[in-house]
Amino acid sequence: MADVLEAAQTGDANEIKAALAEGGNPNVCDKLGTTPLMLAAILGADLSASTALIQAGAKVDTLQNDGMTALFFAAAKAKNSALVNLLLSQGANINARDKKGITPLMFAASLNPEPAIIEMLLDAGAELNARDKDGLSALLWAAKSNPNPAVAALLIDSGADIRQREEKFGATPLMTAAKENRNPQMISVLLTMGAKVNRATVNGFTPLMLAAGKNPNPAVTEALLTGGADVSMKTLEGRTALMFAAENARDATVIDALLRYGADVNAADNRGATPLMLAVIENTSASVTEALLKGGANLAVSDKVLNASPAMWAAAKNPNPQVLETLFKYGANPFETMDDGKTLLMAAASSNDNPAVAGFLLEQGLDPKQADKYNATAADYARNNPALFNTDVYWRLLG
Which among 73, 78, 120, 362 has most CB atoms closer than 10 A? Predict the structure, then answer.
């Protein structure tokens, strides 16, 4: 007997029809529960293939192992409007839910850039404001990942509340878009339709903070700034958008944009950490460090936890020697010490994962034999650092 599933995997309508003509089972499935009808939807096979499968007895509401039906897959593809219509005409459950509580409308809203299919689902009775198990609605899914802002606009025009929040963290559609969606036009459309640019979560996170800290497209941050985002707002921990950018930005673009709109380069969070400190601790990009320094970041400030300077933090935590080199270029003192006598070289030897940082400091003339108030040298600290112990740099520290 012909294998209809194998034929469906080709996406070729003629092969599917031939397999059916030979008596193949239209409801056969693979180990994931995927049926030929689902494959026809996934692969965008000619409508005649799905029609033939249904005429041969294919069940439209068979569940894949994760709970999805053929309608989910059909609704996710822009060119599948005829297939969506066919499945609905055959009684496909418009409000079916997979194991995560996602409906065909949510799935389509997250992936399908074609508003006509979203409208078709709504006209067929899809529940506009249903939520999945994570508290996400169709609008929140569209804001999160749909490349076409017209889909979000259609959902809002159809009655979705632009002020709604997801249930776990209290994020609005604008916050979700700011964090996840790489298309800055999604931001612009949501703002035009009434989204509040400075609305915050219960922990104080704003769309600008989420974009600056998480979104890889700097144009999304720029769109929020253009839309009136407040650069001075802080989370409950005292963090600003510039701090999140300092920790996570890949280059200087977002840093420069925030500074251009008036972000305070020397603001400190509740632990006394400034954007520069956070950058040298968390971000390996020397260009981010330099952008902050060009913007007036204070090199002399210390945090409230260890009373350590940006240079001391960089020596201890940043694996890129160029970050320290940039700090020195702008006036940081390579020979500074902490109150207990610890030097930058000791900090690098103690906890930096890259031996090249300690090696760089040796090249700047730091003395490996200098001891702190505990009479410990850089080599003593390096013995307890697996990343340095027994390396060439370790033996240089021993002198």
Answer: 73
- Verdict on whether the full-model pTM lies above 0.90: yes
- Contact between 266 and 302 under an 8 Å Cβ cutoff? The reply is no
3-state secondary structure of 237: coil
The tokens 């996170």 sit on which residue?
205
Beta carbons within 8 Å of 237's beta carbon, 6+ residues apart:
203, 204, 269, 270, 271
Q: What is the pLDDT of residue 108?
A: 98
- Please state, rounded to an integer, the average pLDDT across all residues of the chain: 97
In this prediction, residue 1 carries a pLDDT of: 46
The closest alpha carbon to 302, from 281, 265, 324, 271, belongs to 271
Give the integer Cα–Cα distance in Å for 369 and 377. 6
Q: Is residue 356 part of a domain?
A: yes
Query: In the numeric block, which tokens belong to residue 111?
Result: 């992936």
- What are the residue ranges of helices labelled H in 249-391? 253-260, 275-282, 286-294, 310-317, 321-329, 344-351, 355-363, 378-382
Residue numbers of the domain that contains 341:
337-399
Q: For Cα atoms 343, 348, 349, give the angle at the middle one, nearest 5 degrees.
A: 95
Same domain, 314 and 357: no
Reading the block at residue 73, the tokens are 């897959």
Q: What is the pLDDT of residue 5?
A: 95
Q: φ and ψ at 11, to 5 degrees?
A: 75, 5
383 shares a domain with 329: no
Q: Which amino acid is at 333?
A: N
Number of Cβ atoms within 10 Å of the Cβ of 390: 10
- Using the 3D structure, point to which of 297, 317, 333 is the last residue of a domain: 333
